[in-house]
Design goal:
The chain is mostly helical and 543 residues long. The chain is built from 22 helices and two strands. It has three domains: 42 residues, no CATH class; 179 residues, no CATH class; 249 residues, MetI-like fold, CATH 1.10.3720. Strand 1 and strand 2 form a beta hairpin.
């Protein structure tokens, strides 16, 4: 049915041509206030895009609130579980037999007396090792942990050499390290002791019900059969705790000390706990040594880090996809040669290629000499590394040169797996090349490579090689000269963190604070983006 003027009432494109800006945004706002599928479908493509962007940012506070709400629920559930554990421990001791009660003090006693000798000996051996360690070393490290050492290096006269020699006493670094190790050991002992109590309770219940307990042979057979996954995971889990979790906890604790080049805890002065002073320093708006504050410096570097990560990720992604599509296109010859040339750039170590490129773009480098002396196109050398804007644009362009070959390899395999009949059906329906790309290629690529984009973004936030080897963070930011390290306009948080920890006045405590903040930013971005990825939300669409 058509109107009298000949227009189709279902043709919304006619009506959209005459929408004023007020009506344009009013329709979006109305749907944001009260969502309706029918009203959303009547929006134009531009309105839908704006709506999705606004809805995304509008959902961020709710997502963060939900995150902290879940934390509260988890804390509550953990507290309830802890209370139940204490109740069970008391109930088991009150109603258990004498073997179970003795096992509260001699781990594994109940298992040994009930015939589970191997299991009981392992419990007993762990308890003996724990007690010996706490007596010999653990108690010492725990007693010094609150102070991180009482006496630093002193000078002692040596009558034989007739000179003063340095006597090293307490070591704050070792105290903190072994103190953390001891706390982890105590937690492991508590967990094992609780497991020992549960084992005795179950064994007693089994015997009372007339069932037979598993013997040593059954336990050994179980370790290589139905419980084999635990056997395999035992060593990797221990390695993760020792080499990943412990260093993270150690780094977090360093942020609450004054550990730096002047207080290294051993050869110089001892370092000590300073509470939240380091966080106050980083987030203080007071001037840092006559320049801008630490807070302003951190905010400026964080903003550039996010901009860099976004551009470095998506320029490589879309341009790499474009190159792969061009090479895969029918009619393009020498496909293997083009791919080989691009792969060769990946094979060259970045340490060599980036240092070479850095020299090429220097003031007296090959690029400026060619443009100025050979071609005569410029009268003065271009400030590739001297000007902040030039330097930032240059590192992004160089990163494109590095990243396109790698993305080309990834996307080539995915593009080849997109069913050809989808494109054939689209062409029959009259879809042009752009419509085929936006409706078929891009959605398929985003679904497959969504997790990669997230890891690539977080990886670019910590991309040390490109920035450090090309510019070293240059040009220097004079306003941030009072902050730790020589802060430059191209410095990322990771390169600034490196500068903070090098040199005679290394401020490890501030580097730990920056590291914690990097983790918080990356974790928040990862959680938010992960939950909106098509790979997670619409997984069933591509099954």
């Amino acid at each position: 049915m058509k109107r009298q003027n000949g227009t189709d009432p279902g043709n919304s494109s006619v009506r959209r041509k005459h929408k004023s800006p007020q009506v344009f945004f009013k329709e979006i706002g109305e749907i944001l206030g009260e969502y309706s599928d029918g009203r959303y479908l009547r929006l134009s493509k531009l309105q839908k895009l704006i709506y999705k962007i606004l809805a995304f940012f509008r959902a961020i506070p709710f997502a963060i609130a939900g995150f902290f709400k879940n934390i509260g629920k988890n804390i509550k559930n953990a507290a309830i579980s802890l209370v139940n554990e204490f109740k069970d421990i008391g109930s088991t001791f009150a109603h258990g037999d004498w073997k179970t009660r003795v096992s509260y003090f001699v781990m594994g006693f109940g298992n040994i007396t009930r015939g589970q000798i191997l299991r009981g000996l392992l419990f007993l051996l762990f308890e003996i090792v724990f007690i010996v360690y706490m007596i010999v070393a653990g108690g010492h490290w725990l007693s010094l942990l609150p102070s991180l050492g009482k006496q630093g290096p002193t000078q002692s006269y040596d009558p034989v050499l007739d000179t003063y020699t340095t006597v090293y006493n307490d070591n704050s670094f070792k105290i903190l390290l072994y103190g953390v190790l001891t706390i982890f050991f105590i937690i492991a002992f508590i967990y094992t002791w609780r497991l020992n109590v549960k084992q005795n309770k179950l064994a007693e219940q089994y015997l009372k019900s007339g069932k037979k307990l598993k013997g040593d042979k059954d336990d050994l057979r179980s370790m290589v059969d139905e419980q084999f996954y635990k056997t395999l995971l035992a060593l990797p889990l221990t390695g993760i705790l020792v080499f990943t979790v412990m260093p993270i906890v150690f780094m977090i604790l360093v942020a609450f000390t004054n550990y730096d080049g002047a207080h290294n805890g051993f050869s110089n002065n001892l370092f000590s706990w300073v509470g939240l002073d380091n966080f106050n320093t980083l987030f203080s708006w007071q001037s840092a040594g006559g320049g801008q504050s630490y807070s302003a410096t951190f905010g400026e570097i964080l903003a550039w880090t996010l901009i860099w990560a976004f551009l470095a990720t998506f320029t490589n992604y879309f341009l790499g996809m474009f190159v792969a599509m061009m090479i895969n296109k029918k009619g393009i010859g020498l496909k293997k040669m083009w791919r080989t040339i691009l792969v060769m750039t990946v094979a060259i170590p970045q340490f060599i290629s980036l240092l070479y490129v850095s020299k090429m773009f220097a003031r007296n480098g090959l690029i400026n000499l060619t443009l100025k002396d050979t071609l005569g196109w410029i009268s003065q050398p271009l400030p590739f590394w001297e000007d902040a804007t030039w330097a930032r644009v240059t590192v992004i362009l160089v990163n494109i040169w590095i990243g396109i070959p790698y993305l080309m390899l990834i996307t080539t395999g995915i593009l080849m797996n997109i069913p050809a009949d989808l494109y054939e059906s689209a062409r029959i329906d009259g879809a042009n090349a752009w419509q085929q790309y936006t409706k078929i290629t891009l959605p398929y690529m985003l679904f497959i490579t969504g997790p990669y984009l997230l890891t690539s973004f977080t990886g670019n936030m910590n991309n040390f090689n490109v920035i450090y080897l090309l510019t070293g963070g240059a040009p220097t930011n004079p306003a941030a000269s009072g902050a730790a390290g020589s802060v430059g306009y191209t410095d990322l948080l990771i390169t600034w963190l490196f500068k903070i920890t090098t040199g005679a006045e290394s401020q490890y405590y501030l580097a730990s604070v920056v590291g914690i903040m990097v983790f918080v930013v990356v974790a928040l971005i990862s959680l938010i983006v992960y939950n909106v990825l098509p790979s997670i939300k619409n997984e069933e669409d591509y099954q």
